[in-house]
Specification:
Bound molecules: coenzyme A
Strand content: 5-15%
Order of helices and strands: EHEHEHEHHEHHEHHHEEHHHHEHHEEHH
Structural class: alpha/beta
Distance between the termini: 32 Å
CATH architecture of the largest domain: 3-Layer(aba) Sandwich
Number of strands: 11
Helix content: 25-40%
């Protein structure tokens, strides 16, 4: 038995944000029925292809454990099938451009008429307001949600981050909203509308940066290393390079081999609780008692110099040696791991965080498994469906269509 067994999802999602959400629900046991346009399907099937005419890794890695049906939801008979799916399913998830579902004839009012228990969950770029009608992609959300203005170096331009906080981050928020709505429906018997806007989700993930915007109104952000050097950081949260910006200063330091290995770096945190251990380890035992070094507030104006000195030590060790030497001393640090290193890491394979999946057209490929581990709801990562792979099966088994009706839908190009 899986946590969401028995829950039927009408998965009307595409690209990344929506599919992230429904993939997670499918991993937790929901029956996820992905509806796609006949012929083309989700645009990502054909984007960033590495093998001609084969579903891209972009698609396969975001659509595991789903069943797929093709349906032209703009044709009359296609709309009828969609209506039956709405009546049958528990949750409809979509991330079309604003208004697309209404234009298709499936407004929230109509969906409620068809199925009052339906939970309708949407990703949109923005919530209600001046930009609510805009289409949005990942990096737009990173810019409008506060991430880009606070990422990068102080004297450089804003930067987007590799973590897909706009798309996958919003998908995760939406999944939580859906599960909560399913829980509430147990009490009320009613469905509800769930919205996760990408701007809101990114801002939620940048919560600590809004914290710092307010702190800077009352004085310098001394935990940022440049403030320690007397630089005026302006009147809002600045880009702060690799500063942790939190209560425990941190920075990325070079390790042995950095001259030729782009990832020979370690993130090193000078946690106050283990300051003595750090001083001994990096050969600066006098820092333990020296005036200006002994307590965290005294060190704030020297953060950069302290990290420069620690780096002289880390440069003599590989990033893994730094980790091995710091861990027994409780010094928090982490090697900068490349995708190659993560792909090859046996421990991640063992926990199912990195999984090899076999696909009938592309063969074996690596993917990221479910990052949530539950003791009573185990996840088996199953390959993504081919376009329309389960159309007949869903029409028959889920909606009760007869073979002749399916043939007629096919003849009219509705499926
Ligand atoms: N049958 C028939 N038509 C279908 C269909 C189907 N099975 N599935 C989708 N369509 C139609 C839609 O109804 C829409 O038609 P309309 O424009 O005439 O109303 C059309 O396909 C295109 O949908 P749209 O969502 O506008 O796609 P797009 O490629 O133009 O835009 C996004 C892509 C991602 C920018 C946009 O969907 C969006 O802003 N989504 C919300 C935010 C989001 O999730 N962004 C992140 C994506 S990772």
């Amino acid at each position: 038995m899986k946590a969401l067994e028995g829950v039927k999802i009408l998965d009307f999602t595409h690209v990344q944000s929506g599919p992230t959400c429904t993939q997670l629900l499918a991993w937790l046991g929901a029956d996820c029925i992905k509806v796609e346009r006949p012929g083309t399907g989700d645009a990502t099937r054909g984007q960033l292809r590495d093998i001609p005419d084969v579903d891209s890794l972009y698609f396969t890695m975001l659509n595991h454990n789903k069943r797929a049906i093709t349906l032209n939801t703009k044709s009359e008979s296609g709309k009828e099938v969609l209506e039956r799916l709405v009546k049958t399913c528990d949750v409809l998830v979509e991330n079309f451009a604003p208004g697309a579902l209404d234009r298709m004839g499936f407004s929230w009012e109509r969906i409620q008429e068809l199925n009052p228990r339906m939970i309708m969950a949407s990703v949109k770029g923005f919530g209600p307001g001046p930009y609510e009608d805009c289409k949005v992609y990942e990096n737009v959300a990173q810019c409008t949600g506060g991430s880009a203005s606070t990422t990068g170096f102080f004297d450089g331009p804003p930067l987007v981050t590799a973590a897909q906080i706009g798309d996958s981050g919003t998908g995760l928020h939406l999944a939580l909203g859906i599960v909560a709505a399913l829980f509430q429906r147990e009490q009320t018997g009613r469905g509800q509308k769930v919205l996760a806007a990408m701007q809101d989700s990114v801002l939620n993930l940048c919560r600590v940066k809004l914290r710092d915007h307010q702190r800077i109104q009352r004085g310098p952000l001394n935990e940022y290393s440049l403030a320690g050097k007397g630089v005026d950081l302006g009147d809002t949260t600045p880009r702060a390079g690799n500063d942790s910006g939190g209560g425990q200063p941190g920075w990325i330091l070079k390790c042995k081999g950095w001259e030729h290995d782009a990832n020979a770096y370690v993130y090193f945190i000078t946690q106050a609780a283990v300051w003595g251990n750090i001083c001994d380890l990096v050969g600066k035992p006098d820092w333990k008692t020296a005036p200006g070094y002994a307590s965290p507030p005294e060190r704030l104006d020297k953060i950069s110099d302290i990290f420069d000195a620690i780096e002289e030590w880390t440069k003599t060790k590989t990033k893994f040696e730094v980790m091995e030497l710091c861990n027994p001393l409780n010094i928090p640090c982490g090697p900068v791991l490349s995708m190659k290193e993560l792909a090859d890491e046996p421990a991640l394979r063992e926990t199912g965080t990195v999984v090899e999946v076999d696909h009938p057209e592309r063969g074996k490929y690596l993917t990221v498994g479910c990052p949530i581990k539950m003791s009573d709801s185990e996840v088996e990562v199953l390959r993504s469906p081919l376009l329309g792979e389960h159309t007949d099966e869903i029409l028959k088994d889920v909606l009760g269509y007869a073979d002749e009706e399916i043939a007629s839908l096919r003849a009219s190009k509705a499926i």
